[in-house]
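Notes, p. 3: input format for complexes.
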Amino acid sequence: MDKSPATAAIKTIQQHILERQRLHHPEATGEFSWLLGAIALATKIIADQVRRAGLVDVLGSTGDINVQGEEVQILDVLANETIARCLGYHDNVGIMVSEEDDEPRILKESEKAEYIVLFDPVDGSSNVDVNVSIGTIFSILRRREGVAAGRVMDHILQPGHQQIAAGYVIYSSSTVMAYTTGDGVHMFTLDPAIGAYRLSREGVTMPPVGKTYSINQAYYNVFPDGVQKYLEWVKSDEAGGYGLRYIGSLVADFHRTLLKGGVFIYPPTRKAPEGKLRLLYEANPLGFIAEQAGGTATDGKQRILDKTPTALHERTPLVIGSKAEVDHVLSFWRP
Ligand code: AHM
Ligand code: MG
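Output follows (335 residues plus AHM):
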């Protein structure tokens, strides 16, 4: 929107979703709008917990280690259960998959429960203890037709181009939700005074170039040769003056890249040959958003959205951002 926040028309996320649905899918029942509404509600509850971190008991670790070998934060558990409670009431959500759960949760067996919702409930959760931005990422798939009863994984392991919606929420100086259903990327800012997400940017586009690169440089020695070569080039006079920004919360690093342009890179390392980030809850949804905003996402070999997942918690290398900047990386690194 071009207008200043003071004069722009006020539109909530619910109004926006219904409006777009009426425009593009007049046949729709409205079920899908309810689902996005439930996700918005869950993230408002999480935002409230995050805002009061330090006052209520959400800081630190539970002492448990999750299925992926990572320390579970108290906020991870709270957020995961909040999402489950918000989605569980919806007849149309059949399966919930979370980075925090070992196995998918079957919420409803019926075929009418056609949606599968995948989450990273709190991305970058270890950062909450030090007041650094964190986020929630989600991806929505539709149940596949013709799958035999009980074959849950066949519904879940779909390539990213099958997503019917994806989005993220960043909990930061303000709380912002971005989502796409395949007709552009739209952003909403949570207005704490009225407890509603208000439209702040419609049809967001990622700048086609951007002189910022975002990578954990400390792993230089364990990156592949090609990535090391890119990192030498990007600092050279020839590259013409790039800046480095790395927050260590994917949502925050991605949000900046989306708005300002640039590239985010999490390559394979010697310790993590498939990279660290998860295909289903991180790379796919952000890849969908990047593409919808005119950017791109690859694992170095292929488009992220074309990868066929083989396991729930599968990891993938990720290069995501402005087209020209991703191409620069690929000109040095072709695994
Ligand atoms: P999480 O989802 O378990 O919090 O982990 C993913 C996070 C990303 O937010 C971030 O991009 C990455 O881990 C940072 O990893 P590293 O500390 O290796 O740079
Ligand atoms: Mg994460």
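Residues 120, 123, 250, 282 surround magnesium ion (ligand 2) (CB under 6 Å).
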